[in-house]
Amino acid sequence: MSEHTIRVLVAKPGLDGHDRGAKVVARALRDAGMEVIYTGLRQTPEMIAEAALQEDVDVVGLSILSGAHMALAPRIMELLKANGQDQVKVFMGGIIPDEDMPRLKAMGITGIYGPGASTEEIVKEIREATKS
Amino acid sequence: MSLTQQVLKGDRLALSRLLTLVENNSPEGRAALAELFSHTGKAHLIGVTGSPGTGKSSLVNQLVLQYRKMDQKKVAVIAVDPSSPFTGGAVLGDRVRMRDLSGDDGVFIRSMASRGSVGGIAQTTAALAQVFDAAGYEIIIIETVGAGQSEVEIARLAHTTLVVEAPGLGDDIQAIKAGILEIADVLVINKADRPGVEHTERALRSSLELARPVSRVYHHGQAMTVKAHKPPPNTWIPPINKTIATDGSGIAKVIESIANHMQYLRTSGEWNARERARLRSETEALVRDTLMTQFLKGLPEGAFESALERVFSHSLSPIEAAQFLAQTERPQTPRATKEQP
Ligand code: B12
Ligand SMILES: Nc1nc2c(ncn2[C@@H]2O[C@H](COP(=O)(O)OP(=O)(O)OP(=O)(O)O)[C@@H](O)[C@H]2O)c(=O)[nH]1
Ligand SMILES: [Mg+2]
Question: Nearest Cβ partner of B84 from A4, A30, A53?
């Protein structure tokens, strides 16, 4: 058997319609050989955790440009844990002010990226984080 | 408790992990499949196929909503999307249309990449369906890659195959190829809110009559098609249903057609025939694999490769190579007898 294919859920929690970044990242991950489950806009934390469970993903990727990340992220982390998916790595991108980063990292979020982030960098760090 | 026991008890995380092991064709996955086999055979497998964008996922969303309203049966969805032939990666987007199903513990949606398979489903899609079957999902809906070609693989796997068409796909005659009609047990014209439905329906009916001749009766000198409520015994005429998957119109009729088809399969003996054919070909394939592995192991070191080289250089035909290898002495058994004590 070849090595395990990395499965990533790319979701947009919250109510904003900025989906360009999520799509750009989804495509970059596909081009890097990963399987990306794209769930689209307006996902609740419950929907995201449920999809992560059913899809048995290695990574959950959140794209948030609405400013609601400090409300959404903790709930998603909590639900993943409650479902027994502590091992899932969470990555995040969008408009995230620097001052929020330490608290997000402390919640267990592995990588955070803002406008202009290089997709090669994102691919590399997801590969790194999912190495078993 | 073992993973399979957890799955049988209804643990969703265990189920999800087992699906991964089976999808990756890992030894643990294969062992679990063997263990679970005695729990399978109860589910109704429904295939949903058709050209890209005809509304397959939206239709699946509505079908599941309806099934869940009707009774307590658990429903699984396996949604297959294509892998990139260049990178092996994939974007699996069918869930986008199935958001209404979230929050229901009786529903389990799993996305799957085709991973190089060309028949519209992946190599391990059937195995994933078996896991769901064992886990007590009585209805399993499989959405294929929207290739719109002759996706015969799904017809082999599913008990009931839905072929989804939509008006205004450009060239209707092209879209409605005989191959895809031959696999249809139920035809759905989705996007019935769009102009051109009547045209699509006419085109479908006439292709259908070419693909599957329909008995006719004469009435007042005019040829009339025998109505679907009185088909000749032991034939199934695929009904044509019109739906609007975005608002649920026409879904009840599709559910009814699927139920009628199930009834037909049971009463005509077709259900048993299909199950037996499917299990036979699965067993045969495994026997072939096992024998091949054993055979290769028994050959002298490098014998297979050197025969292959001769085939590559066209000095030996593949048939001759196979015959030659079959007659090649096996190192362990035959040689041992020749050596004098
Ligand atoms: C394009 C755009 C729009 C488009 C969106 C089109 C679309 N379908 O996406 C339109 C015009 C519709 C729009 C509307 C609005 N917008 Co606007 N928009 C932008 C803009 C200019 C660029 C966003 C973009 O597409 N960037 C390109 C992509 C590729 O970059 P990205 O999303 O940042 O993604 C990168 C990284 O963040 C990261 N990343 C992103 N997601 C993920 C996910 C994962 C898993 C990972 C690993 C990485 C990652 O990687 C990506 C690649 O580098 C930004 C400003 C900006 N500079 O970001 C404002 C901005 C996001 N918008 C803003 C606002 C306020 C709005 C509106 C509310 C304006 C209004 N008053 O009507 C509306 C809201 C509409 C709605 N329904 O939600 C604000 C948000 C403010 C905030 N959060 O505090 C911004 C920041 C502008 C500003 N400076 O005020 N917008
Ligand atoms: N007008 C109209 N649009 C529909 C209907 N059903 C689906 N759509 C739209 O058609 C588009 C494609 O729908 P999907 O359900 O994703 O189609 P699909 O066949 O699953 O697509 P692929 O999986 O990509 O092949 C979406 O924008 C839907 O909203 C319908 O009955 N009427
Ligand atoms: Mg689809």
Answer: A30
Q: Which residues of B189-221 are buried (b: 16+ CB within 10 A; e: fewer)?
A: bbbbeeebbeebbebbeebbeebeeeeeeeeee
Residue B16: strand, helix, or coil: helix
Among B86, B94, B95, B132, which would you mutate to test the A interface (most chain A Cβ atoms within 10 Å of its Cβ)?
B95
- CA quadruple A74, A75, A76, A78: dihedral positive or negative? positive
ipTM: 0.95
- Reading the block at residue A44, the tokens are 């609740």
Confirm or reject: Cβ of B194 under 6 Å from ligand 2. Answer: yes
Identify whether the C-beta of residue B160 lies closer than 8 Å to the C-beta of residue B262.
yes
CB–CB contact A26 B90 (8 Å) = no
Sheet holding B137-143, edge to edge: B107-113, B74-81, B137-143, B44-50, B160-165, B186-189, B240-242
Tokens for B274, please give them. Answer: 């299909």
> Which residue is listed with tokens 């489903």?
B121
Nearest to B13 among A7, A27, A84 (CB): A84
Q: Give CA–CA dist A73/A51, Å, rounded.
A: 16
Give the integer Cα–Cα distance in Å for B46 and B66.
Answer: 14
Contact B90 A30 (CB under 8 A): yes
**Chain A interface disruption, residue of B111, B117, B128, B132, most A CBs within 10 A:** B111
pLDDT in tens, B308-331: 999 999 999 999 999 999 988 766
Q: Is B4 exposed, middle or buried (0-12, 13-18, 19+ CB in 10 A)?
A: buried
The whole model's pTM is what? 0.90
Sign of CA dihedral B239, B240, B243, B249: negative
